[in-house]
Amino acid sequence: MQPTQSSLLARLARVNPTAAFLAALVVVLAALFAPGIIGGALLLALAAGLVALLVTTWPVQAPQTRVVRLLMLTLVVAAALVKIL
Prior knowledge:
Layout: H1 7-13, H2 17-33, H3 36-57, H4 63-84
């Protein structure tokens, strides 16, 4: 591990991708089925996690991947706002 890497990033690198996907899917489904502000808050929490991941991995991502990630972030935030309003 390089001195500039944090232990959090090292732990994230070891996470099983299937488990991470299933956990995110559970949060999204819970947010979509939860009523009003609770569901919106869950989606905004998920969006905050996506922003943290996006900022951390931005320098090493290809431009196509950046566009897809920004699109997904926009969709999650839009869904949260629709859910709240």
